[in-house]
User: Fold this.
Amino acid sequence: MSLTVRILIGLALGLASGIALAEWGAAWEADAVAIAQPVGKAWLGGLQMPLIPLIFALLVTGITQAAATARGNRIAGRAIALFAMLLLAAASAAALAGPLL
Assistant:
């Protein structure tokens, strides 16, 4: 059995078990959610953490490549600084507003 088929079977079984638990709610449902929720939040936080540095690195490399071909080093430096400031401002705003939501 291929890996793709095993993954799809696992997804279908997980979906079916989730629907079954929601339909016939068990007494331990709140305990399971209390255990799984911090793990899920940590997993999503770990997935979201590298996004801003990766986007910044992608923008910097793209601008420097464009600057190398256009020979516009002065404009590229300003653009990189602007992107860095905007990304820092957006990350700060998200960090401050995130807990409020």
Q: What stands out?
A: The chain has a mean pLDDT of 83. The chain has four helices and no strands. The two ends are 44 Å apart (CA to CA).
